[in-house]
Amino acid sequence: MKYFIIAGEASGDLHASGLMRELKNVDSDAEFCFLGGDLMQQQGGKLVKHYRNMAFMGFVAVIKNAKTILNNMNDCKNAITQFNPDVLILVDYPSFNLRMARFAKETLNIPVYYYISPKIWAWKEYRIKEIKRYIDKMFTIFPFETAFYTKHNFKVEYVGNPTIDSVCLRPNQHQSFEDFCFENKLSNKPIIALLAGSRKQEINSCLPRMLQAALRFPDYQVVISGAPGIEPDFYTRFFDNKKVNIVFNKTYDLLQQSAAAVVNSGTATLETALINTPQVVVYHAPFGQLAIFLKDIFIKVKYISLVNLVAEKEVVKELIVHHFTADNVAEELEKLLHNKTYRNELLSNYSKIKMSLGEPGTAERCAKKMVEFLNSK
Fold first, then answer.
1. Rounded distance, CA 327 to CA 111, Å?
2. How many C-beta neighbours within 10 Å does residue 347 have?
3. Are 252 and 345 in the same domain?
4. What is this structure's pTM?
5. What is the pLDDT of residues 128-161, one digit of tens each?
6. Domain count within the chain
């Protein structure tokens, strides 16, 4: 069968590549055309557009890049039409993907499957109308999503969480701290890891305060996890002459070897928890307390980090908007690094989160269900 897949971000590229791998195992005739990234390219097929040219965050960025976004949509529609797939598979990225879902259903009348639900349980709940109208099958990755969609009379397929697979299958799980430091030209001090996000806007907003906090601990070395597609020079301008290191393409290795991490809210918070690294979660939004006021109106969930959402309680500290200051981050790092009771309680809650998400094999389960549904049409 022919599969057209759209993933507009680095995390989508990761999870879509796993799905592609498993689809090939289930369907020996699988052909792929996609919008995605390097990991999807490794699975074969035709790349229409790289996610580096698609990821625009925030109202201002969207307005400034409106022409590029419209061109991306038109290129995608043309590629779908020319490829004529048996199914369109969408991976998160809702603003773009729901428009492609509408096109696929209304213009081409092909099945549309969604792998990794948009976070409409957090905000923009009105999108449920589009999902019910244009999505044939929704494959979810969080247990609490089943209850949300049931409330809206829309049946979903819970297939497990792909982050479990990514973490369980990661290489270098038995690498020593000494070997990691030698390989990456680091000192022998314990590490504070900084994960500032995958987009330049996020990094600009978060990294300066992260650095200000982490550099207050002279007995630790500060190591930044470089995002895919971001050049090293973009990071070094934040350092001045301070001793800070960057590692690229080794986020899991870095987290495994770190004493604690400061993590920008997103999938990385769950990855950090599953690797068992104590963390403080941060999130920047413009306009400070106004953003908090608007959050209380528009955001429908109590927490912003996946760790706390899955646990349904505060496991990790969330410092958002005007609470995200260097002082507050440093205060939380002090607890994570030096308060043994506090640290152990957090790690105990991590274990419960892992159990709630289930076993590895998410992409395999999803691929089998997709092919089964397509064959039963």
1. 51
2. 13
3. yes
4. 0.80
5. 999 999 999 999 999 889 989 999 999 999 999 9
6. 2
